[in-house]
Write a structure and sequence with these properties.
328 residues, alpha+beta, 9-stranded mixed sheet, binds (R)-mevalonate, 2 domains, Alpha-Beta Plaits
Length: 328
């Protein structure tokens, strides 16, 4: 039993966030920002988790938590999904082994890019390697999904799926994941508003609106479905203009559901003014990140405009690689 490092990618939702929670399809793409988990066996039976990004660490033993770094309440809540992923793999191993788990990430936290799911997949895969538990990607996904439920309440599973399998996928609750072939480059600027928000709160907000105005929200759901169907065709054709227009319409629906905010609108407007083909929030909204699609020629201009508008922004490229073992 030694040391293993695994990684998993972040994602952007191109179309269909929130609507996906109610059974509508979504299109999601893994991007070239990854979370890393290093796991090694300890001499004792304790579990030690350190998250560099969150600047939190704690020991876990027999239901007790001893926080070493950071606010105790925050550490207990935010490290719990990681503990859950580790325990699931330990359960499969069938033995009690002490572990050190170190998480580092290039994915902004709580920003709509699926950082918690990427962390959970990477942790599950690295634990599996250290404990000699052979796991299929499907099993890694299931574990990451369990961890995600602790974090987000009633997630659709889209985040752990894309972190685990990578690529570009169509995702729907009842039919699961279907890889999508996207031949064209999809040049995206990702802008982070820096406003941290909770997916759980945003999902609950939409649920409230849907319960209150079912006749209004139901047609929005159908429109979102149609957007995804047309976007699939446009992605296949490499028709960036149509993809951009559909992104704008999708954003308008999300705005209607109340999950955009001032910080997102500011960045989205800046991107559109700089010539983006389309721009929308990505993920749960309420802050977090937006994405803008631009031609290769316009990409730098859009990136600069979003940065000037105050965002921490970068160009994202799609990646086909899901969770992977880096070393063991
Ligand atoms: C979060 O990245 C996407 C949401 O649709 C929630 C979910 O699908 O679990 C807002």
């Amino acid at each position: 039993m030694g040391v293993a490092v695994a990684s998993a990618p972040a994602k952007v939702i191109l179309f269909g966030e929130h609507f996906v929670v109610y059974g509508e399809p979504a299109i999601v793409m893994a991007i070239d920002k990854r979370a890393y988990a290093k796991v090694e066996a300890r001499q004792d039976k304790r579990l030690f988790i350190h998250s560099q990004n969150l600047d939190l660490s704690a020991f876990f033993e027999n239901g007790n938590v001893k926080v070493e770094k950071g606010d105790p309440r925050e550490a207990k809540i935010k490290l719990e999904p990681i503990r859950c992923a580790v325990e699931k793999v330990l359960g499969k191993a069938g033995e009690k082994v002490g572990l050190n788990v170190e998480v580092t990430s290039t994915v902004p936290v709580a920003a709509g890019l699926g950082s918690s799911a990427a962390v959970a997949s990477a942790v599950a895969a690295a634990c599996g390697a250290v404990l000699n538990v052979k796991m299929s990607k499907e099993e890694v996904f299931r574990i990451a999904f369990e961890a995600e439920k602790i974090m987000h309440g009633t997630p659709s599973g889209v985040d752990p799926a894309i972190s685990t399998f990578g690529g570009t996928m169509l995702f729907q609750l009842d039919t699961g994941f279907k890889p999508l072939e996207v031949k064209a480059e999809v040049p995206l600027v990702v802008g982070n508003t820096g406003v941290e928000r909770s997916t759980r709160v945003q999902v609950a907000k939409v649920r409230g609106l849907r319960d209150k105005y079912p006749q209004v929200v139901e047609p929005m759901m159908r429109a979102a479905r149609e957007i995804v169907l047309q976007a699939m065709e446009a992605l296949k054709r490499g028709d960036l203009e149509t993809i951009g227009e559909l992104m704008n319409i999708n954003h308008a629906l999300l705005y209607g559901l109340g999950v955009s905010d001032e910080s997102l609108e500011w960045l989205i407007n800046a991107a559109r003014k700089a010539g983006a083909l389309g721009a929308k929030l990505t993920g749960a909204g309420g802050g977090g990140c937006m994405i803008a699609l631009a031609t290769k020629e316009r990409l730098e201009k859009v990136l600069e405009a979003v940065q000037r508008a105050g965002a921490n922004a970068f160009v994202a490229r799609k990646t086909d690689e899901g969770v992977r073992l880096e070393s063991s």
